[in-house]
Structures are given as structure tokens and as C-alpha cells.
Write a structure and sequence with these properties.
Layout: H1 3-13, H2 27-37, E1 46-48, H3 50-55, E2 60-65, H4 75-89, H5 93-96, E3 98-101, H6 105-117, E4 121-125, H7 131-139, E5 143-146, H8 151-165, E6 169-170, H9 176-192, E7 198-202, H10 207-219, E8 224-230, H11 235-242, H12 267-275, E9 278-282, H13 284-297, H14 304-314, E10 324-329, H15 336-350
Parallel strand pairs: 2-10, 3-4, 3-6, 4-5, 7-8, 7-10, 8-9
Antiparallel strand pairs: 1-2
InterPro entries: Ser/Thr_Dehydratase, Ser/Thr_deHydtase_PyrdxlP-BS, TrpB-like_PALP, TrpB-like_PALP_sf
GO molecular function: L-serine ammonia-lyase activity; pyridoxal phosphate binding; threonine deaminase activity
Protein name: L-serine ammonia-lyase
């Protein structure tokens, strides 16, 4: 365990949670987020997987089904926490509105928050957004601006729009309020399985794993948190190795939800650097295999980002033998075109 964590724990125990000292996300903040959003989000099931448990000797393996979450993704948790806080702090936010940026799932979440809480939110999305997410956004009356081929460029454009129009920017990950909302998944995991040993989380910008890890490490430092990224887009992994946020161009990946760069000075870098125990990288073929596995064995659809954490487990099972492991299935928003290709490819292998 890092010295950073022990020092953070000491500050928490002493009641000093000043964000001026560090980008700190506390258990208390995440508990407050749960109370704030509980009427807007779904408590998703922690499903036992007999198939994975049997394959991984003497183990019990569970899937946290955020693919069954409203809007088909965990992102709704962070979006609702942030928009609720904006409404608490600014009586005119329903008139002024806000702006955000996303590869799709955060856009869906912000649109849902907009529709339910009455705060207009313009969302910048990359031009290569998946067809499934784009279609659903249009159906939900999203206010969209398409910009660039990478989420980092859409984020930069959205921040510029925020500054020019003097309205709040809702980051998909670079915000402790958003990460606190995502951290409510950690609360549910710990309540359902308090003796969990490992949690595998897909990583893009780091808001999901940052929130989950901050909560789990706060209640039990012995829980191991694994960050999982596709080899084709592993910016956070490379940044942690380098000791600072770097730019690395992303390749084509099934995991479009985790693809792209990380904003400079993102609060999630410190969360990942200090709370994530291990990193696992996943090949595209194993992401596809994981998606097919969920369809054939659990009869559930997952998107590429969820296939990253599941694929990471399936290709590294030996190190989880004899333990209780939770795999985060972060979303279900995958296009039918991609799904058909994966099914065809996997079934051809069987034949």
C-alpha cells in the first residue's frame, strides 16, 4: 500500500479533507452522493457467475451488472450527482444550462439528467461516436455538437464553449463530484459482498475506477483494485508508468467507451496512481470473446468497455484462484453491427 494512501487515511481520521492539499475523494463524499442520486439510478445486481467460478479453481466470481443500469451505463451515477449539486448551488442553473463532452455514455447520462432535472446540457461528442449511442441520443432529444476524432478534442472544445458562455462544464471523469457518483458502485459491491478480494474495473479517463477504488480502499485497504485497458488505447496505464499524464494516440478498439486521451491535470490521475493496485491490458480478440461469453452464458449484452474487464479476468484467471472477485460490466451500449460481427467471428472459431 502506498505511503500516499496511509497519509490520506490519517488526514481523513483527523478530519482534514481539504482539496487544497490534494485531489482527495473521501468515503463520506461517496456516501453523500449515494443519498443524492438514489431516486434517479438503479441499484444493479451483483450476479454470481458459476461458469467463471468453475473455470477459476476454488473461486467465486461475480459480475456487477451496470450494463442493466438506466441509459445502459454506469455514467448516469456521476452525471446525476454533478447536476444535483449544480442545482443545489445555483438557483439559475435551469436557465443558464451546462455543457459536457463524451464518447457517448456520458452524453446519454447528461441527457437523462437534463430531461429529469430540467437543466439544459449541450454535449460535445467525437465525430466517430458509435451509431448505437448516436441514435439513442437523438431519440432522447440530446443537444449535440460533433467535434474531432478523439474524445480529448471534444472535451477541449466543450471547455472552450463553457468559458465563452460562462456556464458549468460537466466532465465525464475529471471531476471529484462525478467520480463520487461512480463510486456509489463501490458502496453496493461492499454491501453485497463485504469479503470481496479483488475488483476489476475498465479504465478510460479514470472516473469509474477512481470512485470505486477510493471507496473500497477507504473501507478496506486489503481489497485489490485492478485497472483494465485495451492495448489499443492504454493512456492511463502509460501515464501511470511515466509518472505524469501523457498523450498517446489511440487505435481502433471495440472499447470505444474507454478510448481516447486524458485531460491535462485530471484529478483521476492521482486517484489511479495511488489507489489502483495492478493493471491488466487486453487484446481486441479477448474483448470480443468476453462479449460473446456474456451473451452465450449469462444471456446479457455488454459493450466493448465491459468486455475489457471481463476479458482481463478471463486471460489472467490463475492469479485470482481461491479468491472472491468482482468484475465491473460497465455498460451495454454496443451497436448491432458490432455485435453481429462478434457473434459471427466467435461462432466461426467454434466451427
Amino acid at each position: 500500500m502506498s505511503a500516499y494512501f496511509h497519509e490520506t487515511k490519517r488526514w481523513i481520521e483527523q478530519g482534514d479533507t481539504s482539496s487544497q492539499k490534494m485531489h482527495l475523494l473521501t468515503v463520506q463524499q461517496i456516501m453523500q452522493a449515494r443519498n443524492r442520486i438514489k431516486n434517479y439510478v438503479r441499484r444493479t445486481p451483483l450476479e454470481f457467475s458459476p461458469f467463471l467460478s468453475q473455470r477459476c479453481r476454488d473461486s467465486k466470481v461475480y459480475i456487477k451488472c451496470e450494463n442493466l443500469q438506466l441509459t445502459g451505463s454506469f455514467k448516469i451515477r456521476g452525471a446525476f450527482n454533478k447536476v444535483c449539486l449544480l442545482k443545489e448551488k445555483d438557483a439559475n442553473i435551469s436557465k443558464r444550462g451546462a455543457v459536457s463532452a463524451s464518447t457517448g455514455n456520458h452524453a446519454l447520462a447528461c441527457t437523462e439528467a437534463m430531461n429529469q432535472l430540467g437543466v439544459p446540457i449541450r454535449v460535445f461528442v467525437p465525430e466517430n461516436i458509435s451509431s448505437a449511442k448516436h441514435e439513442r441520443l437523438k431519440v432522447n432529444n440530446a443537444i449535440l455538437t460533433l467535434h474531432g476524432q478523439d474524445c480529448i478534442f471534444a472535451e477541449n472544445a466543450a471547455r472552450k464553449y463553457s468559458e465563452e458562455n460562462k456556464i458549468p462544464f460537466i466532465s465525464p471523469y475529471n471531476d471529484t463530484d462525478v467520480a463520487a457518483g461512480q463510486g456509489t458502485i463501490g458502496i453496493e459491491i461492499f454491501e453485497d459482498l463485504p469479503d470481496v478480494d479483488n475488483v476489476l474495473v475498465p479504465v478510460g479517463g479514470g472516473g469509474l475506477i477512481g470512485g470505486i477504488a477510493a471507496y473500497l480502499k477507504g473501507v478496506n485497504p486489503k481489497i485489490k483494485v485492478y485497472g483494465c485497458q485495451p492495448i489499443q488505447s492504454k493512456v492511463m496505464y502509460e501515464s501511470i508508468k511515466a509518472g505524469s499524464i501523457i498523450f498517446e494516440e489511440s487505435g481502433d478498439t471495440l472499447s470505444d467507451g474507454t478510448s481516447g486521451g486524458i485531460e491535462e491535470n485530471s484529478v483521476t490521475f492521482e486517484l489511479c496512481r495511488n489507489y489502483v493496485d495492478h493493471w491488466l491490458l487486453v487484446e481486441e480478440e479477448h474483448i470480443a470473446k468476453a462479449i460473446y461469453f456474456m451473451l452465450s452464458h449469462h444471456h446479457m449484452m455488454i459493450e466493448g468497455a465491459a468486455g475489457v474487464s471481463l476479458g482481463a479476468f478471463m486471460t489472467n484467471m490463475d492469479q485470482f484462484a481461491g479468491q472472491k472477485t468482482v468484475i465491473i460490466a460497465c455498460g451495454a451500449n454496443i451497436s448491432m453491427e458490432k455485435l453481429k460481427k462478434i457473434i459471427q467471428m466467435e461462432e466461426e472459431k467454434i466451427i
